[in-house]
Design brief:
about 250 residues; alpha/beta; Rossmann fold; 9-stranded mixed beta sheet; two-stranded antiparallel sheet; 7 helices; globular; PuuD-like; hydrolase; Class_I_gatase-like; EC 3.5.1.94; gamma-glutamyl-gamma-aminobutyrate hydrolase
Length: about 250
């Protein structure tokens, strides 16, 4: 298959929300902007794909990478062994994201998870989540102040330390970086073999990679915000799209 202008195609998961009297599937513009700016073509992945194995397989055969975006919704807690209800869930997204992660691992399809996408990767790999970080007494405040302008909400909030020799360090170096912080939940545990790629000063896991995969990276912060204006963000998206391009080249040559 020949891609338009040889740009890789990146599937982007959508989120369900109420749009007036109707339910809709949406994605925030900043994610599309980041993918386009890095040199790839964004392709929306509707929740119905998670209900049709044949259609999902057909879509995956055409993609060169997958982006799991952030979201205002949370995963349903039964996915990581907890009971009870959770506010602002998105069952269709849960179902599709877990299938996409499994397929990405099986196919070695490049995968980038951001915020909720990071948490989906944690859960898919056998890990669990803190449902209310600020109630644990274990961590600094990781939520944004929603009363502030967006530029201040997305301003650097704390440092992260990449793990030596990891994928994140290969992309952006082993020095500390400053990142934003706009999340209520976080990684409580990680699954077998998952590599912790970075931590915050309070010890919270901020990035992971999945084992035996050339590029499967999840980050808890939001690199998509003004992605070309930040060196770490550019490195993440450029590295991801390069991996997608390599995947496309290999697939098209066989």
């Amino acid at each position: 298959m020949v891609h338009i202008f040889n740009k890789p195609w990146v599937g982007i998961i959508l989120c369900e929300q109420q749009l007036g009297p109707h339910r809709g599937l949406t994605v925030q513009q900043k994610y599309l902007d980041a993918i386009v700016a890095a040199g790839a073509v964004p392709v929306p992945l509707v929740h119905q794909l998670g209900q049709d194995e044949e259609s999902l397989a057909a879509m995956l055969s055409r993609l060169d990478g997958i982006l799991l975006t952030g979201s205002y919704s949370n995963m349903e807690p039964h996915h990581y062994g907890e009971s009870g209800d959770e506010a602002h869930t998105d069952r269709g997204r849960d179902n599709l994201s877990l299938q996409l992660i499994a397929a990405a691992q099986r196919m070695k399809l490049p995968l980038l998870g951001i915020c909720r996408g990071f948490q989906e990767m944690v859960v898919a790999s056998g890990g669990s989540l803190y449902r209310q970080l600020h109630e644990t007494g274990l961590f600094a405040e990781h939520r944004e102040n929603k009363d502030l302008p967006l530029a201040q909400q997305y301003a650097p909030a704390h440092s992260i330390q990449p793990a030596a020799g990891g994928l994140l360090a290969q992309l952006a170096g082993e020095d500390e970086h400053r990142v934003n912080s706009l999340h209520m939940q976080g990684a409580k545990s990680t699954g077998p073999g998952v590599r912790v790629e970075a931590t915050a000063p309070d010890g919270l896991v901020e990035a992971i990679s999945l084992p035996d995969h050339p590029f499967a990276l999840g980050v808890q912060w939001h690199p998509e915000w003004q992605s070309r204006d930040n060196g770490l963000s550019r490195a993440l998206f450029d590295g991801f799209v390069i991996a997608c391009r390599d995947y496309a080249g290999h697939r098209n040559s066989v």
